[in-house]
Amino acid sequence: MNIRLPFRLLAAAAAAVLALTACSGSDGSRGAPTSPSTRTTTGTPAPGTSLPSTSAPASSPSPSSPKPAPSTPPPTKPAPGTSAPLIGVGRLQPLWPFTSLDQARAWQREYRSGGHQPWHLSPEQTALAFTRNYLGFHEIDRITKRTVSALHARIGVGLSDPETTGTAAVVHLVRYGTGPDAPWEVVGTDDTHFSLTRPAYGSFALSPLRTGGRISGVDESIRVQVRQPSSEAPLGSSCCTPGGGTGQPWSLTVSFTGATDPVLTVVATTGGHIAEVERFTVTAVRTR
Known about the structure:
- This protein is α+β, with helices and mostly antiparallel strands.
- The protein has helices at residues 4-24, 101-114, 123-134, and strands spanning 140-148, 152-159, 169-175, 184-190, 203-204, 209-227, 236-254, 263-270, 279-286.
- The longest helix has 21 residues, at 4-24.
């Protein structure tokens, strides 16, 4: 009797330990943390800025007719494996036509409810509207090249003059926001033979502003403007500095006043051979 009792107690203790182990689980796994959602910042149509004409040039895509509102709103999350480009300080800057993500989302709601301004869904029409309506380069009215992916587009624009077949600039656009109906937003230009590298893209700017870059050409005349979407007229301009050669540096100082938008467009142009503006390049600077 005295010998068997400890074995019974030992067996009972072992059973209790096994029961606790079974209840607690053997893998010790925990739920994976949820990854933060991608944040985007975007923009709104400029007051007083005219919209693309309903009759586009023959060489550019014709604007599509307003589409009826879908019965179910499109999804607002990016497709699996994709994400909307980040737009904001230190990344891509919203130049035009929207100045904030709230503005882009407001347009999405209007489009879904009544097909409002469908041209925002076309990178070609947006690039031409940016060039002609915002920058005021009315002679540039032709699409010369296009490369479009899910989130980025690079659209070449040029003169329709028969004496030239070149590209005045390659406009870089991104989808501003999320969803299949996220509008296209201009964020800059791709520079080759005419560049604007000063001030640095996305940097803080004060007046007077020192600008510069490099240019290849013959007998060029460079001018610079500072613009914002909420104003029809330039905030400041400076003309002109000569340029030419192959990859030669140029520089020009421009003063500006009346900046109220968070992002300004600095645009440099050259021309005078067959048109006032034959090539242009832009960069983005911030006021806050």
